[in-house]
Specification:
There is one protein chain. By secondary structure, the protein is an alpha+beta fold. It is built from two helices and eight strands. Strands 1-3-6-5-4-7-8-2 form an eight-stranded mixed sheet, with no helix packed on it. Helix 1 packs antiparallel against helix 2. It starts with a helix and ends with a helix. 17% of the residues are buried. About 8% of the residues have low confidence.
């Protein structure tokens, strides 16, 4: 096969991978109900030690600002991560003297409220990832798998090409 034809095929595979990757977040964003639907919120990690940090995220708001509050951390202003983001982000540090137990975290945006539970566990804050990585969505796994498969295919193609040139 001529080198230009191989380059065209490889470029086509790369373009298809890029299109699939770019389409996945757009699909997720369009699946979020707008209007009068209740926003969805997450606190990650869901269990934290006193003095630990949590990431706050709320999606489905009709505004570009919001607020999260709890008895175990100071109120936090939430804002979008970028101009095109549909969800609001923030982070908070749990009070170092927080008593272990379950605490509601209330998210407010667009005149609506939603609450989720934060579990404070006994002990000190963990270092490293420290439980800060929560569950992944199916679309994140699909995008990661697609990128890994594309990289594997490109590596095999390069090895075969080098072997053919060596002959």
């Amino acid at each position: 096969m001529p080198p230009t034809r191989i380059r065209h095929r490889l470029t086509g595979v790369a373009a298809a991978t890029l299109v699939i990757t770019a389409a996945s977040p757009a699909t997720l964003a369009s699946a979020v109900p707008a209007g009068g639907a209740t926003p969805s919120a997450t606190v990650s990690p869901g269990t934290v030690s006193p003095g630990g940090r949590v990431a706050l995220n709320v999606d489905g708001c009709s505004t570009r600002t919001g607020r999260a509050s709890s008895r175990v951390f100071n109120a936090v202003a939430l804002a979008p991560g970028s101009a095109s983001a549909s969800n609001l982000f923030g982070s908070a540090t749990v009070f170092s003297d927080a008593t272990p137990g379950s605490y509601p975290v209330t998210f407010e945006c667009g005149g609506r409220r939603v609450s989720v539970t934060l579990q404070v566990a006994p002990g000190a804050a963990r270092g490293g990832l420290g439980g800060s990585v929560d569950a992944m969505s199916r679309s994140q796994i699909a995008v990661g798998g697609t990128l890994a498969a594309g990289a594997l295919g490109a590596g095999i193609w390069l090895l075969r090409r080098r072997a053919a040139e060596a002959r």
